[in-house]
Backbone:
């Protein structure tokens, strides 16, 4: 099995490589540290069964390069990895054509199982984009993942209608979520809601 790993944090890339070498028999691992390097390796090595790319490494903000890499992979699994991801990030990854978006916060065995799942079920599956639990500080507020996604979008300063379009819900549902969230945080406005959510560690700046 040939696996390509690309992550600009060399210790992470090498660690994942060692983990997968131990987990998959007859595995050949190629490691690089940017999307440009991954593109070159893919061109050189040709057939790669699965690629693992860090979401925030150099080159990932160049969408034409991302799309070219996905096309060149020949529809074999290309998996994104990140320590965190917003609803917007996950929607982008799905729309562009990645096979999965996995948290680096998974433990080793769980991470390996998710890769195995993606390889077996190679068709796009929404399940592979639902693994993220938004970061939060230990607290007492009961905030759902959907509510945290809404707060993340409010932080961008966009309208309820735009939030509704992204989250694929009605503007009335967004309004109801915001009313509930302002009550939970004791916030007097949208801005106050974001400030308190950031201050308490429920979302990141």
Residues:
């Amino acid at each position: 099995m040939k696996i390509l790993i690309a992550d600009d944090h060399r210790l992470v890339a090498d660690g994942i490589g060692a983990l997968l070498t131990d987990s998959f028999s007859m595995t050949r691992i190629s490691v690089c540290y940017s999307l440009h390097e991954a593109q070159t390796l893919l061109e050189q090595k040709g057939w790669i069964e699965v690629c693992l790319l860090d979401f925030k490494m150099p080159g990932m903000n160049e969408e034409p390069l991302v799309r070219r890499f996905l096309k060149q992979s020949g529809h074999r699994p290309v998996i994104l990895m990140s320590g965190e991801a917003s609803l917007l990030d996950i929607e982008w990854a799905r729309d562009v054509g990645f096979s999965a978006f996995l948290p680096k916060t998974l433990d080793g065995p769980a991470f390996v199982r998710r890769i195995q799942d993606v390889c077996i079920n190679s068709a796009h599956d929404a399940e592979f984009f639902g693994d993220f639990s938004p970061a939060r500080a230990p607290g007492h507020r009961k905030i759902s993942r959907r509510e945290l996604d809404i707060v993340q979008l409010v932080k961008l300063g966009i309208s309820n209608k735009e939030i509704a379009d992204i989250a694929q819900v009605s503007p009335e549902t967004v309004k109801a979520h915001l009313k509930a969230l302002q009550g939970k945080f004791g916030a007097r406005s949208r801005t106050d809601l974001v400030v308190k959510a950031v201050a308490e560690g429920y979302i990141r700046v």
